[in-house]
Design goal:
0% strand; 3 helices; globular; 70 residues
């Protein structure tokens, strides 16, 4: 799963660079998130990267106002 986490961080940082502290914090959070998805049965690496990028985007940029979550 480490390679999935690194792919997520690399892709996100190519769009929105993070300083070292935020990158380290993001790495921990995304690792926990990917672990929880994996333990729930999600094994497709490509899908995990997509989920991880969405998670980081929401984490750093906030929720998209176009979606209410309903």
């Amino acid at each position: 799963m480490n390679e999935v986490v690194e792919r997520i961080l690399s892709a996100y940082q190519s769009m929105c660079p993070l300083d070292a502290a935020r990158a380290a914090d993001s790495r921990q959070k995304i690792s926990r998130y990917i672990d929880s998805l994996s333990s729930a049965g999600q094994r497709d690496a490509e899908q995990l990267v997509i989920y991880g990028l969405a998670y980081l985007t929401e984490l750093h940029e906030g929720q998209d106002p176009r979606f209410t979550g309903c």
